[in-house]
User: What shape does this take?
Amino acid sequence: MQTETDTIIYMKQNETKKTLSLKSMTKSSVWDIQENDVFRLWEGVEKDTDARDDLRHYQDIIRSAFLIEELSDDSEINRKRYEKQGYKVGQIRVDDSSSVTWAIKKKTIIRITDLTYENIRHISAAKLMEVLERNFGGGWESIPQSIQDIIENAFDISTTTLPKDRLHKKGGMYEKKVNDGYEVLEVEKGSWVEAIFAKLKPESERPRMKFETKAENEEDDDADVEIVDDYNKPDEDDDDITEPNDDDITEENYSTMMELDETDPDEEAAGMADYSDE
Assistant: This one.
């Protein structure tokens, strides 16, 4: 049964296929396409001379979502062998004179370690529940924090742990979440059950910076401010400072910043005389 979330993802993928090209493709949007789309998009690059310089870059993006095998043996038997494994086989042109055969297959998201920031928004809540159920038995807290962050980047997650006979109580959290479109995974813990609820978050718009501008009739708050130039005006505290009077200076209160040598000048002169006699 296709849920509302599945429908949204399906519509998003179809819209992406209509507008996507190798030049605009990212490691996130590449998850919206399938194997046949890769070959179709590559054909568009063959006619774009500007894009040919970035073929290695495009291959790296494709490899983030697809397994790619370059077939040196292009025989029909070898092609069939890859096709039985779910690969699509086709040729791509790498330059004007040569082409190679690719066998490609979309990577599957089976384990929680397969989840990335690039692919998390390209799965439904029902698919997420399948991945969680397949990978752990200890509840939400048993998931590594790094994986929790990836999941919560795209899904609204909430949990509750209750006795088995109370989990499905009429009018309780379980019923309200299901009615609100959440998928539920139940993890048994003895006589208790942990219910994990997940719902895909709507994609939020990137915030834009807003700059306030004054209206024509809006008064400028600084218009009435009087600018006073008092740079050379002495401080008020300077009034308390009086200039020294030469008549007030006496021998007792006069001092200098230099220390005077306590050596007697006469003794120093006598020493110099003894030195000169030698």
In short: The two ends are 121 Å apart (CA to CA).
